[in-house]
Design goal:
GO molecular function, one term: L-glutamate N-acetyltransferase activity, acting on acetyl-L-ornithine as donor
GO cellular component, one term: cytoplasm
Helix content: 25-40%
Distance between the termini: 45 Å
Number of strands: 17
Largest sheet: 9 strands, mixed
Pathway: Amino-acid biosynthesis; L-arginine biosynthesis; L-ornithine and N-acetyl-L-glutamate from L-glutamate and N(2)-acetyl-L-ornithine (cyclic): step 1/1; Amino-acid biosynthesis; L-arginine biosynthesis; N(2)-acetyl-L-ornithine from L-glutamate: step 1/4
InterPro entries: Arg_biosynth_ArgJ, ArgJ-like_dom_sf, ArgJ_beta_C
Protein name: Arginine biosynthesis bifunctional protein ArgJ
Structural class: alpha+beta
Strand content: 25-35%
Length: 441
Amino acid sequence: MHCDICFIDGGVTAPKGFTANGILCKIKPSRKTNDTALIFSEKPCTAAGLFTQNRVKAESVKLTQKNIADGKIQAVIANSGNANACTGKEGAENAYRMAKSAADALGISPEDVIVCSTGVIGQQLPVEKIERNMESLKSGLSKKGHEQARIAIMTTDTQYKECAVKTVIGGKTVTIGAMCKGSGMIHINLGTMLCFITTDCAVNRRMLEKALRLSAEGTFNCVSIDGDTSTNDTLTIMANGMAGNAQITSEGKDFDTFLEALNTLNTVMAKKIAADGEGASRLIECRTVGARDIESARHLAKEIIGSNLVKAAMFGKDANWGRILCAMGYSTAYFTPEKTSVYFISRIDAHRYFTPGKEDEAGLLSEKIPDNEILKKDGIKAIKVFELGVPLNFDEELAKEILKEEVVQILVTMEDGNAEARAWGCDLTYDYVKINGDYRT
């Protein structure tokens, strides 16, 4: 991480000019916590978004895609408890009523409002409950309001998800904040959750869109919980320029710094989503090293983390490396099985011990094998279960100890190139079935 990028408190309200709030509108009568959130920028923002690739799109997604098309946004209104998906003309009208209610309260145009909904599909949104409480929602906007807003977008999430970072661009302190929700119906395909990113950086629309897409490819696009892509997936970013830096209009040092800060933020958020998967008992990271190119590295990591058989093995604390090789094999990404090794590691921050060395005379990457005593000193447990295409006689008890940890890394090393990537997921548990077996009722 860049030495000038640091984590701060505040979530979506950490950047200059942004306030937020969240209240309970009782969209679902049984709800006890906030269910409607509002984010507002005192100045109009440049904006960009990525959306679900599902052919069935929620009415809020359709409206937001239309509103964000001109790259100008000033507010976000979001609700949980009802997805407003597959709701026809009435659902479209309700989405617009959400935007207009927020816009009227804030004194802006309905076309400058992002609208998001999450919850049960196929039920009409009781939008009048939101309209009735809009003045209260608006009057409570504050810099501390991120604490109320981050709760309001949760559905089956067990914990809120937010983060903020700051860096220096053009001699000015630039801040980026985010909040998201995501626990189920999450799979590798663009947005894969609801996520709202705010920044006071001055950056034009073209470069903001580019930064968001590049960052999503290696962060949110590398998360899989259950293989489902929601009807409501939305990832947006709003930039109001209040940091005062010279506007970023092209690639270069300032753009690179902004992208690095955005990647730092989004990596944290991606891990938070993966760790809080429905019914999950552990976060699983897959790191692929020594792939032919970045596309192959990412594709392989995604296939491994997305495999239900791998997820089930992780739940059972079973070091069944065969399922990992199987997922790699059907991925269609290039790799050489005979030059592939697999580890299980009890930490995901042990990179310095498991990094390919310099290329040898044949141009292939050699592994830097860690010393067990060094690993133990740092509290790291690791075991190699498959080496260069050959199974190993490994310590099953040690493997089980490693797979009991709350965070586990699957490390796959190859000798096909210099590229590496990471993807995040979780184990597949009995509780996932329970949660989704009675989700609607």
